[in-house]
């Protein structure tokens, strides 16, 4: 919505819903400066849902007649249809989504519309709307997270035997299986899912009825509106209800960690698609080209996800700073909660969608992964463990393997390429069976315990991960 063409209502101060005590019109800049309708109109359907529940409750407790409730409900439903069709005349002069809808209701159904706001305030109304909106987004995010995890686990199962180098310090360290690496990503996402569900519990409480800050003198039924809106229960304290934004901060903290995890996976995808690594193929539909270098295929999607992590971290800090030192109860500062929250939720959802689409399409270049794993003496630890099994103390074994590696480096060979005689110079405990442990397959298969990289363990872990996902 542009600020310039917003019109449709109110030229004089008394036309504002709160205009009674004012003697001059709001300064035109102040009007725009204090308005939130440009961004809070995306909570319009939640606002209507909240109003419907509030009006129904008011009629049930006898504050509104059934007829009044009927008129209000019909009017609100017609407005919802108008909004969905894109025909609603949003007005900056009416400040925010709440007053736009209320004014529209009165212009549509007449004086009865003015009764809707009985026993509530925009303060509890906005807190209700944000919670409803965020709950909807959380459920969409949870679904995309699950779609991504299902794709990753399936890919991990297919790649349970695929050998790649495992890294520490980005140096080739020990061979692992690609399936095992993918399941590491999945673990991060499982924790994210748990955090999201935990956050949802605190989002899903109803502040409606807290009114401006102290509650209301009408005989309202807060449990009823909570129930009508699908909240678990009403919030406990009216002052806290209108000023609490912990739930938004918690959500942003979830989103920050999620994006942190996706950025780590993104970074690996960027590395692995480079010609230096060349471990995976990312289908063209997730990449773009360069306007000057014809040979280029850039991994834009993971790069952008990596980049978007910054803005989500920023939103978390914005909200923490917004709430710092705020006295009870509602302060206009809180209008600033929406844009960071909306963008954090949108970004999390978009990045998950991109990843969920991409994950099943990743193609492992198994030969390149295998060749890279074979480089860099990645089975040196296996040789040390072999010597320990033959009775050598681990520290001595470490020394022996160090000497063997140094000998191999001088001859530009890998450990497995040295002859038995060459290896035996460093320890007479080394026998012909040493070559079994120097293979990559032997190395990964030996790590055969819960959490280990052995293909059998990866398959078992995939089974457990699938059960967890199915139980959601
Ligand atoms: N637009 C406001 C917000 O987003 C709604 C609540 C306004 N309440 C008030 N007392 N001015 O926070």
What percent of residues adopt helix (DSSP H or I)?
A: 55-70%
What are the secondary-structure elements, in order, as H or E? Answer: HHHHHHEEHEHEHHEHHEHHHHHHH
Radius of gyration based on Cα positions: 31 Å
What summary fits the major beta sheet?
2 strands, antiparallel
Alpha-carbon distance between the termini? 39 Å
- Tell me the count of domains: 3
Q: Could you say what the CATH topology of the largest domain is called?
A: Fumarase C, Chain A, domain 2
Structural class by helix and strand composition: mainly alpha
Low-confidence stretches: 1-11
CATH architecture of the largest domain: Up-down Bundle
Tally of individual helices? 19
Organism: Microbulbifer halophilus
Subcellular location: Cytoplasm
Keywords: Amino-acid biosynthesis, Arginine biosynthesis, Cytoplasm, Lyase
EC number: 4.3.2.1
């Amino acid at each position: 919505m542009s600020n310039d063409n917003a019109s449709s209502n109110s030229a004089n101060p008394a036309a504002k819903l709160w205009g009674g005590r004012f003697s001059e019109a709001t300064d035109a800049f102040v009007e725009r400066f204090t308005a939130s309708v440009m961004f809070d109109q995306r909570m319009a359907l939640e606002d209507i849902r909240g109003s419907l529940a509030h009006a129904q409750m008011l009629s049930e407790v006898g504050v509104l007649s059934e007829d009044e409730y009927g008129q209000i409900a019909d009017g609100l439903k017609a407005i919802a249809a108008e909004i969905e069709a894109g025909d609603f005349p949003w007005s900056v002069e009416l400040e925010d989504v709440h007053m736009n809808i209320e004014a529209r209701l009165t212009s549509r159904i007449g004086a009865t519309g003015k009764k809707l706001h009985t026993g509530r305030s925009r303060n509890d109304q906005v807190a209700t709307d944000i919670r409803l909106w965020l709950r909807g987004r959380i459920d969409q995010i949870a679904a995309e997270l699950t779609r991504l995890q299902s794709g990753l686990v399936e890919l991990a199962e297919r790649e349970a035997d695929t050998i790649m180098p495992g890294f520490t310090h980005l140096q080739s360290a020990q061979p692992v299986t690609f399936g095992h690496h993918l399941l590491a990503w999945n673990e991060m996402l499982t924790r994210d899912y748990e955090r999201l569900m935990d956050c949802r519990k605190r989002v899903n409480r109803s502040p409606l009825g807290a009114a401006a800050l102290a509650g209301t003198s009408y005989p309202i039924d807060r449990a009823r509106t909570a129930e009508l809106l699908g909240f678990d229960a009403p919030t406990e304290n009216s002052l806290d209800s209108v000023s609490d934004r912990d739930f938004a901060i918690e959500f942003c903290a979830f989103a920050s960690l999620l994006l942190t995890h996706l950025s780590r996976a993104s970074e690996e995808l960027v590395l692995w698609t480079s010609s230096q690594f060349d471990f995976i193929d990312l289908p063209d539909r997730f990449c773009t080209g360069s306007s000057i270098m014809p040979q280029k295929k850039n991994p834009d999607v993971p790069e952008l996800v990596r980049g978007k992590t910054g803005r989500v971290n920023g939103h978390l800090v914005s909200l923490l700073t917004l709430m710092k030192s705020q006295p009870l109860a509602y302060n206009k500062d809180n209008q600033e909660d929406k844009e960071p929250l909306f963008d954090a939720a949108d970004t999390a959802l978009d990045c998950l969608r991109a990843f969920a689409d991409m994950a099943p399409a990743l193609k492992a270049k198994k030969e390149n992964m295998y060749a890279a794993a074979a480089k860099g003496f990645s089975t040196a630890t296996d040789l040390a463990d072999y010597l320990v099994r033959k009775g050598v103390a681990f520290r001595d074994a470490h020394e022996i393997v160090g000497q063997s590696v140094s000998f191999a480096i001088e001859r530009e060979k890998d450990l497995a390429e040295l002859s038995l005689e060459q290896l035996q110079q460093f320890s007479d405990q080394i026998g012909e069976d040493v070559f079994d442990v120097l293979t990559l397959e032997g190395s990964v298969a030996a790590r055969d315990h819960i959490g280990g990289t052995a293909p059998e363990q990866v398959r078992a872990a995939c089974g457990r991960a699938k059960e967890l996902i199915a139980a959601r």
